[in-house]
Amino acid sequence: MLRCDEITKERALRIFVVENHQDTLKSLELYLADLGHEVATARTIESALVDLPSFGADMLICDIGLPDGTGWELLRKAQLPKPVFAVAMSGFGMNADSASSREAGFRHHLLKPFKVAELDKLLDEAAAECTPT
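The chain above was modelled as a monomer; its predicted structure follows.
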């Protein structure tokens, strides 16, 4: 499998990140942009619901615990023009949390704090699915 930094040279992703913790959001944004991805962000469900549909995201990385609801609610409410590779991230790691993420439509549930290698693996998977063959 190609490393994320290798595959993004061929296919940069449009990634929308929803995270209410400012430092975490900025770190993710900088990391993803450094890999060559186009990144948009939001800190609340309300803001994400405004900006996400028009961004044309290939991938959504969304915190579950947000100040105005849950990432599960966001994914259910979002009216996206195309399917998106959705990844939940949370400090909640109970089996029920992972199951709720899958039921809401998330492909994966990252437990915070996660290793960069875990994120890179998901970026590779999303890029492979988003890249036309």
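Residues 116-130 form the longest helix (15 residues).
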